[in-house]
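My current task is to audit a protein record that another person submitted. I need someone to confirm that the token line plausibly describes how this chain folds. Take the sequence as given and treat only the tokens as open to question. This is what I was given:
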Amino acid sequence: MTKEQLEAIWEKCEAIHGIGIIATNGLDADSARNLILKDIPALLAEIDRLQRERDAAVADIKLATTEGEICILCKYYNANNMCDGIKSGCDGSYSGWQWRGAQEGEAHE
């Protein structure tokens, strides 16, 4: 489900305020609307988070494939530009490589 679809649901729920229908679970329209609306902000926030993470992953894949920078994208590559091969179990064959994840404050395409 896209962010736009959730926003459309939000708008429809806002529009049913005051209509005297009964939901299938026995709730009146206002109660059903409130039940639905309470989860939508969290869902929208999760969509935004996942989109940022996806964008970071795509940018890192581009970096790795165009510049061959695979080690710096590993969570075991430290601030001293050194691989902590002991923690990762990496033996130079990238066997212990794990993506570092999205980096806060980093600009991605």
